[in-house]
Amino acid sequence: MYTHKLGPRAEYREKQGVRVAAAPCLAEKYRKLKSLTVNVGYYAPTGTIKYRDLTYDVNLHHAKSVFRLDCANDECVQGDFDLTEELAAATAKRAKTVAGELCCKGWQNKASIKKIKCNHVLRYKLKLGY
Ligand SMILES: [Zn+2]
């Protein structure tokens, strides 16, 4: 049997990393997409306390089309945020801006697996150019 020396958190991140690496880059997947600017706000579980806010231009030739952002909770297990579907839906209808909120579906920490959800919040705004 295959046993892993990593904890559940690292193991999950590693699996997701493999999935991301195997995906085509954004430029390849969405040929009409010419630019993508991401603005994200990371919030505590209630959505009222903001940890940080960042805005950046995505390099479409480097960023993968499986588009994941790490959860702000350093001990989160099997969570994180995935904007892959949001991006696919936005480019399909040539949307220029998309905004929304995602709630982390992971576990709060290693000790709370299957007991307490992480529930950290990500508020995002995507600006797309074609
Ligand atoms: Zn989380």
Verbal overview:
The protein has 130 residues and is an alpha+beta fold. The chain has one domain (8-129). Helix content is 22%, strand content 28%. It has three helices and six strands. The strands form two sheets. It has a four-stranded antiparallel β-sheet, covered by helices on one side. The chain has a two-stranded antiparallel ribbon with strand order 3-4. The longest helix is centred in the first third of the chain and has 15 residues, at 8-22. The N and C termini lie far apart (48 Å). Zinc ion is lined by residues 71, 73, 76, 79, 104, 106, 118, 120.
Compose a concise summary of this entry.
The chain is an alpha+beta fold and 130 residues long. It has helices at residues 8-22, 26-29, 84-92, and strands spanning 35-43, 50-57, 68-69, 81-82, 97-103, 121-129. Zinc ion (ZN) is lined by residues 71, 73, 76, 79, 104, 106, 118, 120.
